Amino acid sequence: MANPSLLVDPVASALHSVLFSEGSGPRSFGAEGKIMGTRAKILTIGGMPELPEQLFEVLRSLEHRWSRFLDASELSVMNMNPGIAHPVSRETQELVHAMQRGHELTRGAFNPTLLPALVAEGYATSLVNPELTTRVHEAARSRGDLGRVEMGSGTITLPLGTMIDSGGVGKGLAADMTVRIAHEAGALGVLVDVGGDLRVSGFSPRGDSWRLAIENPLATAQQLSVIAVVDSGVATSTVTKRRFTSGSLETHHIISPRTLKSTVSDTIQATVVASTAADAEMWTKVAFVDGHRALLDLARRHQFEAGCLLVSGEWVTSPGWPVADA
């Protein structure tokens, strides 16, 4: 069955013919900057020129709610005060709901409760501000219990021993939320890329599908693939970046819930195309925890697309991988 995010809407096609006739079309506006420990890019088609900068403020607001490096963030307050029902924003409730769903769908490969293990592997300090560090609760376990997190009406209670980390899913969900707000503000099309967790929706600058290049992490001047998608989330995770030293060992930021150490698998980089950036980000973790074949099997079962760069240098994809026409 075809991925719905890759199908053509006949109404949108008719609107495209009107808006982009005779080579003309709505103007595009963009903004780039550092956010959430990485670089982000926002591109809007149509709407007001100042919209991309306004959308960056949305990302900053989410960072202030979710960052583990900020003591006053909603996540940090919950992490350091378990057993208490904390009032949280609607956005944070949506984040934790997404975490619980992703944990179940990935059979535990995605696990946002590994923050103490991640800190132990060497990722305690912010990569963009070394003065910011992560505090770990004295009773925290290396692997928490997401199933015992209690969701109330506007509140969240973490059980003693459990800490959560927004990590990549926070970046993906931030992209999804920002795209929704962009359309509400009048954008006809929008791209939000937060450090490789990317969401596109509506018209591209070309007026049709969005063409996206997948970078080869071993040769950044080369591309593994160029894809064409509409209204999709695209996430890329790799073990070649965010590397640290723990004792005499070199580690990275993707932690296995099985070993509580940096993952060791047949995959160097995984890219997933799904309905949302949050879902795509969570699915990528399967390749690093359970191997690329497990990811491709889940892609078939759950109707998303995946591509993996293997340790052998081979690039493998799911059958429906949306390669762009030459």
Explain the overall architecture:
By secondary structure, the protein is α+β, with helices and mostly antiparallel strands. It is built from 8 helices and 15 strands. The strands form 4 sheets. An 8-stranded antiparallel beta sheet has the order 1-2-6-7-10-13-14-15. The protein is globular and about 60 Å long.
How is this fold's topology laid out?
Elements: H1 10-19, E1 28-35, E2 38-45, H2 51-66, H3 74-80, E3 86-87, H4 90-105, H5 115-120, E4 150-151, E5 155-157, H6 167-184, E6 189-194, E7 197-202, E8 210-215, E9 223-229, E10 232-238, E11 243-246, E12 249-252, E13 267-274, H7 277-290, H8 292-302, E14 305-310, E15 315-317
Antiparallel strand pairs: 1-2, 2-6, 3-5, 4-5, 6-7, 7-10, 8-9, 10-13, 11-12, 13-14, 14-15
Helix pairs in contact: 2-6, 4-7, 6-7, 7-8
Strand content: 15-25%
Which second-level CATH architecture of the domain at 209-326 applies?
A: Roll
User: What is the CA-CA span between the terminal residues?
Assistant: 24 Å
What is the helix tally?
8
* Fraction of helical residues: 25-40%
Morphology call: globular
* The level-1 CATH class of the domain at 209-326: Alpha Beta
Succession of helices and strands: HEEHHEHHEEHEEEEEEEEHHEE
Structural class: alpha+beta
> Biggest sheet, open or closed, and with what strands and sense?
8 strands, antiparallel
**Gyration radius, rounded:** 20 Å
Mean pLDDT over the full residue set: 89
Secondary structure tally: strands: 15
Strand order of the largest sheet: 1-2-6-7-10-13-14-15
At the fold tier of CATH, the topology name of the domain at 209-326 is T-fold
Q: CATH-wise, what's the superfamily of the domain at 209-326? A: ApbE-like domains
Low-confidence stretches: 1-22
